[in-house]
Design goal:
The chain is an alpha+beta fold. It is built from 18 helices and 19 strands. The longest helix has 15 residues. The structure holds (2R)-2-hydroxypentanedioic acid and zinc ion. One of its GO terms (molecular function) is FAD binding.
Length: 479
Amino acid sequence: MAAPSPALLDSLAALLGPKGFTRDCDAMTPWLTDWRGRFHGRAAALIAPATREEVAQAVRLCASGGVPLVPQGGNTSMVGGATPDASGHALILSLRRMNRIRSLDPEANLAVCEAGVVLANLHEAAQAAGRRFPLSLAAKGSATVGGLVSTNAGGTQVLRFGNMRRLVQGIEAVLPDGSLFDGLTALRKDNRGYDLTQLMIGAEGTLGIVTAASLKLVPAIGSRVVAWVGLATPVAALALLRQLEDRMGGAVESFELVPQGALDLVLAHIPGTRPPLARRHEWHALVEAAAPVGAPSPEPALVEALGAGELVEDAVIAASEAQADAFWRLRESIAEAEKQDGPAVKHDISVAVPDMPGFLVEAAAAVERDFPGVRVNAFGHLGDGNIHFNVRAPAGTDAGWIEGAGAEVSHRVYDLVTAAGGSISAEHGIGQMKLGEFARLGGAARLAALRAIKGALDPAGIMNPGKLVPPPPLAENRR
Ligand code: 2HG
Ligand code: ZN
């Protein structure tokens, strides 16, 4: 792939103006490294179009010069999905200036948002209109709609409302040749062949640039109740979730598993945090149940359900919104606390929900036995069968561990996941971090289909190269 010529850079600068084009090192530096500081790249320029027409023209210019583009929103990828390679040939295409909510229609329960709308801003706007966009994650203050779409983001409310695939009604995107696909439809039924919207969701920017999405809204929350629960085992945790669902149905919106070790990390590194329960427990669950405006509060049902049976070792119900937020802060700070603590390898994995408790315990024992000194930190979305099976380096190890012994740990974890019929990427995508493991374990049919789709839509390979789609094996390359 080519570096942009001076003439191409001049054309882009003229098209986008000083707010939309920079080659200044200081301005570009924050966007050349991922959130975790694991991947570092270089770029020939950072472009930030303000409209879909500017995106389309910029893509057309880049396509004519064979110049790679790396789309970027909030730069919160966990897998290096928005970081360019080291060649310095790519342009970062930031969507952050496209941050308008074009419409928010409470009657239709739809919000049309540009790609750069920050998730927390969408939450606020929906709430002001008596609605809710029911997808939430720790990075909500920076993550943008385009990135959420492009990674099929999940988070802490998937249990009830599903991930982005379920919440996106349609998208608008600039395809690799610069043409504009307008799929911002309000149609609930549409059978015109392949579903391009679904194809672009989770494509990690490899098939084009998502410029806007039409997102489904649900009724605003009237009342919520948040509980912190102490438990002995992940088996008990999943059994409790099923009990709560039996008693409370769809009111249970979140059920997050937190081991004592993860809580300890948060308490050690995140200022102002306190343990919710007096005693230590091997495992904890953060539970949230909610009801729409006008419906009875779910609190009595949750209190009763937690009090029944033997599963719960101890539990506390948040007495105020502030306490509920404090419980959530504990959960949402795990990634930050783990980062501050030292090197770790992350494995964002899934297995069938009923298999997860057993997998979790057995895989942790196997990894800790085979790699002495490492510490498994497995937490997250138990009800979705998606756990962040992270493995912390032995105490005192430096960051070099990640690429060395850490890579062997990952290899082992992914083998265990694959043997259990699971996925090596449940939530964060493949990016550049998992490309090698995806090539190894993705399966011939899946990988061939991915490469064929990529080749058909982006034959020059300019869209986010080096992410998601592993190059074909060498033998096929030579043919
Ligand atoms: C979460 O669920 C995020 O908190 C981050 O997906 C997970 O840090 C991680 O591995
Ligand atoms: Zn997660």
